[in-house]
Amino acid sequence: MDVHGLRELYDLVLRLSAVHDLDALAQEVVDHARRLLGVDVAYLALAEPDGSLVIRVTDGSLGPRLRGVVLPPHGGLAGQVADTGEPVQSADYLGDAGLTHLGEVDRVAEDEGLRTILGVPLRLRGKVAGVLMVSQRAVRRFTAAESSLLTSLGSFAAIAIENAKLVTALAAANDRLERAVRLHDRLSEVALHGGAPEDVVVPLSELVPGLVLVADEHDEVRAAARAGALVAARLEGKPSKLFAHVRRTRVDGLSVTVPLASANAYFGALQVVPDAPLDEADVRLLERSAMTIALVASVERAERRTTAELVEHVVTRRVREVRDLRRPHLVVVSEDPRLRNLAPLSSTVDGNWVALVRADEATVRSWPLGTTGLAGPATGAAALADAYDDAAACVRVLNALGRQGATASPADLGPYRYLLSQAGREEASTFAGRTLAPLLTHDEDRGTDLVRTAEVFLRNGRRKTPAAEELTIHPNTLYQRLDRITALLGEDWQEGDRALDIQLALRVHRLADDLT
């Protein structure tokens, strides 16, 4: 489902959440279904206690006969949808031998000229509460995307219709209902303006005594509350495995877990560990809250996916210019996935997290991240891509230097900043090769390890014992190697500026190898 379809569905659910009259709510659903799929007719049948389906509302019908038609259990296309709980499509209904035809229904379909019909279930807690159908008076093949979109509409309509029934049944004004209405208003505000999980669990915990928490699709707790206050909490079980295939409310002992899901995506779970067993009205409130969180999560996921593609295309030079990035942005590359929660404009590129941020460098350095490279600020797609190259190279240099967990920009790397570019690495390799030529030739010709021996010895402050321990060799072996190095480089290789040049060349030689 694309972002446009999600937005339309999002807007509809906002309207449905404010409608408590069942007939008006059903009419809103079919009106929107007809516009959304561009069909001739849309109609909705609700399940009765005896298993039959009654067509309550229509949109686009030629006369009143379609409204009020009773579909007996297991009959027709709607009966097949109700039995299977899955979408059913018939390209030419009246001639479809695979369906159980009903005389009265077929006559109405013939009078209306209905040919292609698509029906989807209104599923709620594993049961089919009704069937939403759209029809065309000419043969048409509905696509998988259209079927998915109508299925999502049916899923949210089922919850909205059940909510309308709940509000009607609890019409008597009492304290519990008043608090439920206040929660409804809060949820509507969250759905309208977006929000975080705590915006739902905190007011819900005021209504439902006990622990209320929200977990993401990876079973990580996003927020938890008790008695209107945020608390630390642990998730009971593994909802991601539980709801992988069966997405309906589960009561396990005292805990109640509701999936946060649309027709095609799982976003996490809402879980309550109540102080006392919940009744049916409480469970319905949880499902209503879960619908709001799922809506926000679905739009957020779609927007994040679009944003992630934008970031990836910019830094990998797949786009030349982006209007939204005409202001300076700092490019941040990090091995730490927490970056995605700190920067809206983020994505993954070559195994690292990448973000384009408007914050200044000091702010980014204060973020709790692991190994991180910074570059910029830069303006425009080309400059941002160049800055990304520098920031990504900073991460590689930090790792090569053994500075894991640090944050650095090119200016922080001192002479090693020249290793950020290919030209700089070539120049540094030339310097290292010229300075260390005798050692490199000796190691290559004789299979010795004099280059590493010299580096470890100088890095340990020319102290022989710790150098031998790091090299895991006998001190006498170290003495022999040092004599050979002196013979190749000269007596002054351990002293003054010459020692500094050699130590820098040794470090550059190793880093250049690590970065290629």
From TrEMBL:
InterPro entries: CdaR-like_regulators, GAF, GAF-like_dom_sf, PucR_C-HTH_dom, PucR_C-HTH_sf. Residues 21-171 form the GAF domain. SUPFAM superfamilies: GAF domain-like. It comes from the Bacteria. Pfam families: GAF_2 (PF13185), HTH_30 (PF13556). This is GAF domain-containing protein. It comes from Amycolatopsis iheyensis.
